[in-house]
Amino acid sequence: MYKVIYNDVVIDLLESVRYGKYIPATKRVVATDRSAANCIVASNLKDRYLLKGVPTPEGCNYLKVSLVPITNEEYYALLEKKESPFESGIRRLRKNKIDELRDICNKNITEGLQIQLSDGKFHHFTMSIEGQLNLLEIRHLISIGEQEFVYHETGGEYKTFTREDMQIIINEMFKHKQSHLLRFNNLKKHISQSINLDEISKITYS
Q: Which pLDDT does position 85 carry in this prediction?
């Protein structure tokens, strides 16, 4: 009895192991013994996993897994869980990937961007939570007719900005935020709908 582990998540259970060897020239797997194997057959008899500790064959994009022997008791205990190992594994993988992308999204938002103001030059502004609240307050002041505002660019001293420049800053900053939130939400939706472990693992924020 064995459990198949990918990224610290149990994704499959095997009563016995069917070993295979991926052949780059034909992009096919042929049956072999343990000593010559670089992959194993999944419990559904359709998918293949690449074994950790062996070189990755050229053109092979199988998940690289660890094969861990387990007792009969552990095997049947895992089988009796409400979720199958695959369902549990893909749920955890989805959560880990979404958390990873959320952190990147938030980092990109708070790092801010370069904005061209009325002087024709580009100025960098960060977008911390405190900064976002300040911008919301300034936007309210603009709406009631204020003409000058105290603010600062990244690493700079506080100084006076005109109504025109502050409106540019606010518009560009929130456009920047919305762009990243939209990207994250689209990726999150894609991850939530995918049932392909390899596809989920390879999704990046870029």
A: 64
H or E stretch covering 124? strand 122-125
* Nearest one of 74, 57, 47, 53 to 65, comparing CA atoms: 53
What does the pLDDT look like over 125-151, one tens digit per residue? 999 888 888 888 988 998 888 898 899
Burial (CB < 10 A; 0-12, 13-18, 19+), residue 25, is exposed
Calculate what percentage of the chain has a pLDDT beyond 70: 97
* Residue 45 falls in which region: left (phi positive, over 0), alpha (psi -120 to 50) or beta: left
HSE toward the beta carbon, residue 65, CA cutoff 13 A: 25
pLDDT tens column, 181-191: 999 999 999 99
Beta-bridged to residue 6, according to DSSP, are: 9
Q: Measured in whole angstroms, how far is the alpha carbon of residue 162 from the centre of its chain? A: 40
| Per-residue tokens: 184 | 């994250």
Bridge partner residues of 22 (DSSP)? 29
Q: What is the pTM of this model?
A: 0.63
The DSSP symbol for 159 reads: E
